[in-house]
Structure formats: structure tokens, C-alpha cells
Amino acid sequence: MVKKRIIIFCILLISIYTNLSAQTIQSRAYPQNYFRYPLDLLPHTTAGSFGELRPAHFHSGLDFKTNQRIGYPVYAVNDGYISRVRVQYGGFGRAIYITHPNGYTTVYGHLSAFTPAVAALVKAYQYEHQTFEADFKLQPTQVPVCKDDVVAISGNAGASAGPHVHFEIRDTQTEETINPQLFGLTIPDQVPPTITSIGIYHLNGNPFSEKFAAGYYDEIGLGVDFTARDIQSKHKEKGLPWELAKAFDGSAPISAFVSKAKFADIYNINFKLDINGETRQQGNTSNLLFSFESIIAFVSRYITLKKGDLIFTGTPAGVGKVAVGDRLEGYMEGEKMLDFQVK
Description:
Elements lengths: L1 E10 L34 E3 L13 E4 L7 E3 L4 E8 L6 E6 L4 E6 L1 E4 L1 H14 L4 E4 L6 E2 L4 E5 L9 E8 L5 E2 L40 E10 H9 L5 H4 L11 E2 L10 E6 L2 E7 L7 H9 L9 E4 L6 E2 L5 E6 L2 E7 L2
Antiparallel strand pairs: 1-14, 1-18, 1-19, 2-3, 3-12, 4-11, 5-6, 5-9, 5-10, 6-7, 7-12, 8-11, 12-13, 14-15, 16-17, 16-20, 20-21
């Protein structure tokens, strides 16, 4: 047994047209001329910048170029001690962390070799734990370093697309990564940026505000929400989830989308569903119990909404069965939006 219900829904196509006000980016002072560059290669050039958008994260440091070669000495940018050593198949490959007395820690990744002292500690750890990968911390007195000491050799280890040194500056207490250029480690750049598009995402999990939710969808369409009643009943009897009764192939036919700008009032749109030429359901968006904006705001409190997500809402009276061979036609303001046959 299968039932159907007509649903009018809005597709969330996030079209940003918010005016962004200027704001101060640097909210604290950082020590200038304290850290040196980790390489002596001039000019200092990078293959990756701080905050650069990567497939699954923002880049957290500077990627210093090494002339497409490995084997250059990597220097301690100031006095401190090697506080952590890491060896991975991916990630940084080989990396060291140097803690400095001014409250910051510097990170050096994709190295080809450690110093003999550090290499001995890594080897001892690997033998003791019977593993290639290593990640361990050191005490301040174990491997102290001075500014200009060679602490490693540049490489191409780990998840690296080419020889370079990944360099970070972190707050020692919070491990927050900070743009090295704020410390005076500037990179010459004479090419002004060109903004081609802007996207805004809720990174901190905050929900959409109902006040601004109208700016996060711009098209409306029709859809039919089928439920396999026989499967639903069996699962309800056993106390099981209903997902198999709702999420099967062809369970939610959808129409093409229409710009909401086409309608004088999106809260006065007539829509209906005909089955075999007879009107089975009809409604008007003025009868919605909750506005599109309040629904978007509510859903976003529990589910992260992204571009392309669909929200089904609005079920007029007339829910009932359909049979193989039935022809379903959906209309919005008299325009046919859906036309298909049950198979």
C-alpha cells in the first residue's frame, strides 16, 4: 500500500547580497622582528598563504617554496626548545614544534630529515611502540635550540604536492594558529586580489535568523512525498525507524523551480495535484501554519543548511492512495509543474 501527499517546498539557493561592513582584522599587537624566516632562500616566496581555502579546511600557515628541491637547512626562528615531534604517512609527514619563551610555538612540516638528536629520539620511540608513526612531546631540557640553529632539513614528506616547508605560529596555550605575517614575516606581493564571488557559511553552528532567512532561498517548486504504508506499519509495530518507508527510489518527485520574484505575493500562491484528471489536493500558501522564513530558521537550529538543500512544507487535505498506472499532474498558479505516471 502506498500513499501520497502533495508538498510545496522551497529550495535553498543561497544568493548572498548582504552588504559587509568594514571591520578591524587585527585585534591585538604581535611582537615584530622577533621571529626570523625559517629559510635563507631569497626572495621569500610562498606556495600557500595563511587562511587559504582548501578542500576541507582553511590553510593554517605559510608554505615556503624551496625551488622545487629538498635538502635546504631549516632554521629555528628564535630561542626555545623542541617540544613535540611528529611522524605521519600523511599530514605533515615529518614535523617539529618549537616552543618559545614569549608564549608562541612554531611548527615546521613536510621535512625530509631531523637533526641527529631528534632522529635518535624518533627511532627509540618507533622501536619501543613498534610503529612507524610517532607523536610525542619533549621536556624543555631535552632539545633546547637557539635562534639560527639548523633544526631540520626541508623536504616533501606527507601529504605534500611538491617540495616546500609548511610553517605555522601558534599560541602555545590555546594552540590557535596565527598569521605569521602579523609578526613581520611579510611576503612580497604586488598583485592586488580580484574578488570573483562571496560565500557566507555558518561555521560556528549558529542558526539562521528568521529576520534574514528570506535571503537564503530564491526559488519555489512542487514535490510529491510518497510513503510506503505497508513498510511503515511494520516498522511502527516493531518500534523501528520509518526511513525505509520514506527514502526509497522515486519517493519524492520534484518539479522544476520558479523564481519567487515571479509571484506578487509568495504567501498567496495556489497549487494543486490532479490524479487521473481529477483534483485530489489543492491549497494556497496563505494557509501555511508557519512561514518559509520561520521554517528555515527552525530547521537550521538542528540541521546545517547548505546551498542546494530542499525543505518540503505545506500538505493540503486529500492525502490518499495511488496505484500503478495512475497519472499525477501538479500545478502552481495554473502552470503545470509535474506530470508523471506511477509505475
